[in-house]
Structure formats: C-alpha cells, structure tokens
Amino acid sequence: MKTLDPITVQVIGASLVTVAEEMGAVLRRASYSTNIKERSDCSTALFDEHGKLVAQAENMPIHMGSMTGLIDSLVASELTVRPGDVFITNDPYHGGGTHLPDITMVKPVFADGELIGYSANIAHHSDIGGRVPGSNAGDSNSLFQEGLRIPLVKFATMDGVEQAPLAFIGLNSRLPQERRGDMLAQLASVEIGERQLREVHRRHGRETVGAATAYLLDHSRKRLAAALREVPDGTYRFHDLMDPSDGPATAIAVAITVDGEHVSLDFAGTGPQSPVGINVVRPALEATVYYALKAVLDPGIPPNGGFFDAVRIDAPHGSIVNPVEPAPVTARTDTCQRVADVVLGALAAAVPERVPAASHSTVTYVTFSGECDGDFFVYPEVVAGGGGARTTKDGLDAVQVHITNSSNLPIEALEQEYPLLVDTYELIPDSGGAGTHRGGLGVRRDVRILGDSAEFSAHADRQATRPWGLNGGHDGSLGRFIVNPGRDDEHRLPGGRVSGVQLRQGDVLRVESPGSGGFGDPASRSPERVREDLRNGRITEQAARDLYGFRSAD
Amino acid sequence: MLRIGIDVGGTFTDVTALDAATGRFYIHKLPSTTDDQSVAVAEGVRAVLRQADADPGEVGYLGHGTTVATNTVLESNGALTALVTTTGLRDILEIGRQQRPDLYDMDADKAPSLVPRSLVHAVVERMSAEGKVLTPLDEDDIAAAVDRVREAEPEAVAVCFLHSYRNGDHEREVADRLRAALPEVYVCASAEVAPVFREFERFSTTVVNAYVGPKINRYMSRLAERIRATGVPVEPRVIGSSGGMMSLDSVSRYPVTTLLSGPSAGVVAASHVAGQAGFSNLITFDMGGTSTDVCLVRDGRALVSSQRRINHRPVRTPSLDIHTVGAGGGSIARVDSGGALEVGPSSAGSQPGPAAYGRGGVEPTVTDANVLRGRLNPEYVLGGALAVDYAAAGRAVDSVARAMGADRSVAARGIGRIAAVNMAGAVRKVSVEAGEDPRGYVLVAFGGAGPLHAVEVAHEVGMSTVLVPPNPGTLCALGLLVTDIRTEFAKAVLEEADERDPDKLNEVLHEVYESARGWLASEAPPGADTKITGEAKMRYARQNFELSVALPQRVIDAARFDSGAVAEIVAAFHDLHAKSYGFAHRDARVQIVEVQLTAAAAVDKPELPAIAEGSESGEALIGRRRVDFDASGPVDTPVYDRTGLRAGTVLPGPAIVEQLDTTTVITPDATARVDRYGNLIIEVEQR
After folding, report:
1. Residue A535: closest CA among chain B residues belongs to which residue?
2. Distance between CA A267 and CA A253 in Å, rounded?
3. Which residues on chain A are in Cβ contact (under 8 Å) with B494?
4. Most exposed of A15, B28, B131, B407 (fewest Cβ within 10 Å)?
5. How do residues A291-306 score in pLDDT, each as one tens digit?
6. How does pLDDT run across B124-157, given as a tens digit for each residue?
7. Which DSSP category does B475 fall into?
8. How many angstroms separate the CA of residue B88 from the nearest CA in chain A?
9. What is the pTM of this model?
10. In what residue span(s) does the Hydantoinase A/oxoprolinase domain sit (chain B) (predicted)?
C-alpha cells in the first residue's frame, strides 16, 4: 500500500466540496419554484458509503446535516436498492428533512457494481398540498393538515422516472407543473453529483478517496476541538420564550456544558410540544445547534459528519424540540430561531466578546393567495428584520439571521405576477434596541390587494417577546401585522400565527418585522453616531433625546 | 498607420503599438500614475512613438483600458450621490435582497449603500407593472425634491422609480428637471442606464453609474486633452466591460459599463491569439499578484453576463462573465486550526510582496513556494531587474512547514497544489455553470503568473491543452488593438411569447433597434463593417430565471417579428432548456423577459507576426536547474529562453521557459510545441 500524501488527500476532500457546489448550481438553475431559484432554499450533499455526510453546500443553515437521517432511513427500510435508483421523501419524522414542503432526494452511487456513496439534495417546494396554499400555515394542529406526507419511495430507476409518485405528488399540489419541474431539477442535480463522485473515484481510486473522506471528517472534528479549547470549561444556561399561541408561552431552555474538547447541550426545561406547527423535529434541532456553535466558535468549520458527531444533544421527549408524531411542524423555523437565540445567549456568558445581542430571530413568513384571471396564485414572502448589535458595532438592518438566509422577491417581479401592490417597503426608525452599539432595524412592508379578494396566512414570532439586548443594551421592537393602517377600520392581527385572514380589494396588510437588541449602555454611544443616526432617520428625535440623552445643540 | 493600445493596471501601464504597414509590434511598460492615470498614458504614447520612430500624426487608432471606475468603487471615493425615488420605497438599496453577507460570520458587514440615507428623497409617483400611471407626478412635490437635492450639494443624482423599465416618463421628467436646475451635477435615470426589471439590481446599477460618473467624466476630459497634446490626431476609445470599444462620449454617459474595462481586454486578446492559432473554445486564465480572472469563450465569443457584482453591489449592465478568485502569486499560505493548509485569499500584494522579492514580506506566498521548487528562477526575475532572496523564501515557507509537521519541500509543493486547486475551482465554475464540460476547452494562460500554474490547473480540471501566448504579461494592451467597436442595448419586455400578438414585443424591439442603429451611426468609423445581432432572454412563465435565445437575423434586420418568428424562438427556447437542464415543458407558457441587441462595427484586426522556424531548441537552452514537480522529488530540468524559441520546436517536459514578463512551467507529463506565431501549445497527458 502506498502512503497517502496529506496534500493529495486534502485536495480530493476539496474536490468533493466542489461537487456539492456544482450540484447546487444545477439545482438552482433548473428549478421552477421561486423558493429554490431566487431564494436558494435548497441544499446539496455527498455522503460516503456508510452514510456519513462528507460535503455539503448549504444555502440555509437549517439544512445543515438535515439530510443525514434520510440515509439511515433508506438503509433501515426494506426497499431494494439497485444501481440507477433514486429515492424521495418529505416525512420529517423519518429522515425527510424538517417540514413537508422540503422534499429530499437521494441517489445511491455505484461504481463497478459497488456502493461508493450517496448524492442527495433538499429543496423547498412552493406547495405540497394541505389545508392552506403554500403548505406553510403556522396554525395547523396536525402534520396531516400540513400537506402530503411522502414516505421514502422510489422516484426513478435506471429506466427513468417512475410516473406514480410524480402523479401522486402533482395531484396533491396546487401547482402540479411546478412540482414536476422542481423534482426533475432535483433529479438533474443528484445525477451530476453521481457522475462527479464516480469521476473522483475513477481518478484517485477508492482507497485514496476513502482516506480523503476520513481526512475531511477529522479536519472538522479538529477545528471544533481547537475552538472549544478556547472556551472556559463550565455549564452555561439560558432561556427565552416563544410567543404564546392559545395557552401560556412556551419556554426554550438550554444548558451547554463545555469540557475540554467536548460540548453537550441539554434542552431540559424546554416546554411541551405545541398544538400548532412550531415543533422542531430532531434534524431541525441539530441543524440549529450546529449553526449556532459554528457561528460563535469557528465560522470556518466545514459542515460534515466529523463536526456533527462531536456534538451531543439531549432534548426531552414530547417537548417542542423533540415532538411526537404527528405533531405539526411546518413553522419550525421560528422555534429554531429561538433555539439559536438561547444557544447564543448561553455562550454569551462563556465568550462574551463574541456574542451579539438577540436578532429579530423569526422568519416572518407570509403568504397571500387568491385567484387571478382564473388561475390560482400563491405568493409566499419572507420579511427580514434587525440583526443583533455586535460587541463592537451596530447590528445589520433588514437581514435574515441564523438558520435562514432567503432573499425577498423583487417588488417588480411580484407585481408582474400577482394582483398585489407594494405601497411601502422601508426600514422602521427606532426599531433597533438602543445601545452603545445599536440593534439593526426591522422592516415595514405594506401590501395592497388589487384583485377582488385575497387570503393572508403567516407564521412569525417575536410579536410578544422582544429581542433582548446585552450588557445594558435595550431590547429591540416587536413585529406585528396590521390591516388597513391609518384607516378607520385599522386593526392589529392577534399574533404572528394566523391563517385565512380575508382581505378585500383595496385592503392593505402591513407587515412589520422586529428590530434587534442593542449592546452596551446607550449613554456610552458616541454623540457622533447618534447624530448620524438622527440625520439618516434611523432614530427619531424623541429617541435621541430620551434614550441617548442627545440634545440637538450637541 | 500606427495603432496603439494602452492598458492601465494597478502597477504598470502597458503600451503596445502596431505598425500596420510593416506588421511590427512595439511594446513599452512604465509605472502607472495612480493619481491621474492619463499622465502615464500620454507618456507611454510618446515613448512608444519614439521607439517606433513615428510621428504622432501617423497614429490612426488608440484603444484604452482603464481601472478608474473599478478603483473608485473599490476604494469608496466616488461622488457624493443623492437618490430620488418612488415614495414608500426609499430603502430599496438599504434592504437589497435582505440577505446577510456571510451565513456564519456574525461580524461580517453589508456593503454600505453608496447613497447615505439622508440623501434619499422620495417623490410622489407610481407606475403599475404594465407601465400605466397609477399616481401622477406632482408639480410642487418635484420642486420640493429638487430643492432638497440642491441643499445637500451632491455631485451626482440617480433617479430610480419603480417599473421605469416599462414606462420611463416619470424618471425622465424628474431627471430633466434636475439637469435644468443643477447643471453642474451628474444626473442619470435608471431607464437610461439599465431599463431592465428587478428594482434593487436596476437601482444599484444606476447608483453605481452616478457614483463613478463625475470622476470618470473628469478623467475622460483630461485623457482627451493629454492625448491631443501629444499630437495624436484621433480621440481614444475605451474598452467596456463586455469587451467592446466605446467613444469617450458613451463612457461619460454610461461609466458603469467600464467596470471591467481592463480584464475584458485580456479576454478579447486571448480569444484573438488563440483564434489565430486555430482554437475557438477557450477558458482564459489571467493570474496576477493577488487574484486570478477566468472566463469561458465559446465558439470564439466570450460569455456575457448581466449578473455581476462589484464589491457586493449588483451591476446589471452586460459584461464579460469573468470570474475572479483570490489566488495569485502573492497569496499567503497558512495552516488552519484543523491542520489544513490554506492559500489565499489574503495576499501580500506587491507591497510588501512575497518574501523572495526582498521588499519586507515575511509571510509565505505562492511565489515563495515557486522559488523554492525551482519553478521560478532562484536568483532573479524580470530579466534580472529583480533579485530573488532564496533564503527569505525558505524562512517564510518553513513557518508553514513547521505548522504542518512536514519538511520545507512538502510545504512548498502543498502551497502550489492548493493554489492550483483553488484556481481549478474557478475554471470548473465558469464552465459548469454555463453547462459546459471544461475538458473540451483550451486553457489560455497569461498575466505574470498564469503560465507558471496553467499546466497543473489543466491537470486538475482534466483539460488536455494549454496555450501560452508570446507576450503573456502585456496581452491586455494587445487586446486593445483587436477589439471591435461594440455595445449592448437591453430593454425589458415581460410579455408572454405569443405568435398571434407580437405588438408589444415589436414595440420594444423597434425601440432597442433604433438605439443600436443610432449608436452605430455616431460611433462607427465611416465605411466600417457594422452589424446588429441580438437575443431574447426567455423563461417559462413564473420561472424566475432566464435563458438567452439568439434572435433570427432577419427579425433584427427588419426590427420586427414576422409571422412565425415568435414560434421559432419559442421552439429554440424549449430546445435550449432541454439541452441546458435535461428537460423542457413544451406545452408551458413562455415569457420574453428582455430583448438585448448588440451593435458592432468591426475594426481591422492585425495578423499577428509569424516567427522564424527551426526545430532545434539548443540555442534557446540557457541552463539547467533542479525543479520540484511532484512527490518524487526535484529533477534536472532544462531552462529555455522564450525569445530563442523557433516555430516548430518541441519541448518535452520537464522544461522551464523563461521570458521577461513570465515563466512557463512544463511538467514531466506535458509536451510543448512552438506554433508559427510563437505560442506555446502544451499538451497535457491525462491521468
């Protein structure tokens, strides 16, 4: 056996990451759903023959490692696997991603009749059936209301695409043509991954690729270990609340124990699973924890099995972060954002110089639907908010944070496609918590209904519990939904999780996203920065005076 | 008649002159004058005239590549810019696409808007997506906006209203009012600069245009003046981002189209040189001190994209689809906390530079590794103008070797290998994302460091041929002599492609065609061979991504879709979709998003001179040294002088070819031959 040159192994490792990126490029280019194409709500990955995640190109941290369960499910299933087979599932309780709109696809890759790995991807489809258009209402009370549940089934074989699953899925979606296009795009992506993985094996040989894989996994483990050595040993606790739905607000609690090169997280004390879809299945919890650790400890850790296996996570059975099926899960992202908040909050005690104040930390996912010229339309949108103030500088205005990073749809694109008009899309002054370093600002978006009627559904959080400030920084503002602002019939919707809100022609639905927490005592903010904020309309004169003690003569 | 090309780079200004009568080239290099690039430009013109012993009156053509616009954005020293926009939408630039700059690095910042929020002024107005006026402009409101703009005393103003690509009346009216009220201020409107849809990208493009406008205008007038002062009777032309020459007047109006001026000249030159050598499918590979630019050229035409970003800000004007990766000779190597070797993107640049160059650099760079491996001359480079400090290179690389727990040679080899992989990634990206297999392409290597690494990059990607032109270090200046006069005009259509109802489509086509024709009438030299070609950007309805379909020439010539023409491009779109993504929905509705026409006037392209023939490499052999190629260790390798090579000579690897502006590495499993123009054509054996 020849000895393996470490650089060669590193180079092959890098080429596996490149393959995952190329799979992503193909998926985005060929897909239909705005979610996938414009918002890049999709991720691609390669696994080794043992089902270890080797390389992932994730556009959203919520997807980090979230395909791992799929391989386990496939191996555990009774399905026969032949070269050329492709499988899909969207079942969050059995390895199919984290909610029903995310369809996961995997192709086992063979070379010379032997299994050499898996090529997989996950993509957010715009509608997968269920009781509301867009399949994303936060107030469903069972997984069965949330959409079509696809068990792990064969999607294609050597002979081509199986028509049955395609027909089933198409018939259960409000937008069958899109489903077909998106799934064929996913197929093109796993096939590119298959081809390239084989090519890497052909060029370097199985043994060397195996060593490269081991190298990649070990490298991530070592980087995590190196980062953990810089964190003082101890147990760090933090908790926060979700917005209440019907009953009392659910707590999210964590205790993080750092011991040398080891880290474990225990979510004991977290409240029970919710009757509405804000429950977080295991893959979503893991992805969120991986995200938060990576962001705080070492943003450069490559996301793979070596990193994931080194993190221990315990979550109480039946809690909101470890629900029992068929608890609804579609609006899991808001809870994930709160999980990220508490992990960051706990780590703030351990490494205070690295952790920002709380961000808007919700996804503010809104959907307008209705009929237009005989066609059904669904317009999903996500509205960003303030990024938490950093320890050395202000928070970012109007950004996605933590487990998502999806983009908005251009106003000109949406007004082309839907009978809607955007009257306002602006930053909200004073929404960022005051501080030595100010929190980032939230966003106001007013959408006017042009058609006869439309329906509004949404899930959002931080409409009752504010994003916290740190070190004396003030909390950020709350988000809210308002119908017809400034008119006689103005009213605020009861909370962030709503569905079936009927709107008539001319009605305006105002979405306000939360700002974020500030960092440090506002009194210590330099008058120069306060003046600049005032000049640029980021704060009002009243805030400058009341919160920063600023006098216009300054 | 003398033709002159002048390319201004960060360090040097390169001048190439061609005597059309004799076919002789003259090359001059001088330090760039960063405060005012036109000083070195004029000096370079004088110097090359002296060299050619020519009279300024003999100059019939002067092509220029500039980095003024790029530097202005990168260094954030453009004009104080105001924005006038639709009421309710004053934060389009602040919000952008609402994505954070880095998924995991919470310290990362967004690129700040080029317009301070206090200089954003909203006016009451609104168009619908169909271009109908929903809210008319208000006379008093306009006057108030003009007053507010005046008070802030900006140097430039961008006027950006929603849906102006559909109906630009409101923008035009407000822009005209501003121009009349503030004649000293640079004013541009989004429908003039980039009448395409998606507001953030259009606004951003327009604001970048305004931000660089005043500076570019001042530069262009100084340039014209200094050139006049040399006695050269022609006005310079400037190469734009999409690889076409434009007049100074065009540049003044659309300075945003020069953001890629310099790099695009290199791509044009590489295409020309390779084309003459018989290759039309290329990937250009321009490696310098801090970064590497790669671009895919298909059938002799470089791919053009409208999705570029400069410093994280989108710019929607067509430009060559050049991808830049932070890997160059000055890229710094380090070992991360997990023990992996990383190279770049941080760079020692030219100051302090690689340790080997003795200008105070101590960190290990790609150049230092090349010196230690014998790939670069261990005593001097630049023909002796720069001494090499071998010991310093050794000390620098040792720091990495210690961290790796390896010896110096392993570390040096690793640095080269990782750099090659990074660059190979860029080569793969430009080809895979264009749906092409790079293995069918020729890698054309230039820039100071391109030929040093090209063979290894080709290996990594699986490409079998590398071409190194005769003067890789001054290729951009050559490009300025062979660039056609050309520009693009695009306008949004956003209509379903319907054979029965082509009126709206024809209206846009006609408008764009008139712009293209008018431009040619003012830009093309008399008697030039002109041509307008075009494409439609199409997509399935509601699919948010477009593919470009060529328009039939008869449609363009008539500026009208005849019966059957719409069905023809729809069929072509389905075919292209099937080819690109493996499937097509032949029964789905197809939308035409945009029409883009390219107006071009051909310039006379010089035949590059042939070199003397001779199959013996003996007289070019200037020495031998031990060169480290792979894990089997250093091997005795012949070193050749490029200027001594004759056409027809074959150099089996391993071999090193040195010349003033670069060094070419031919690995043991590659073979180079010299073609009749003096290009090195290197065949790379694939594993």
Report:
1. B118
2. 6
3. 416
4. B407
5. 999 999 999 999 999 9
6. 999 999 999 999 999 999 999 999 999 999 999 9
7. H
8. 4
9. 0.93
10. 202-488
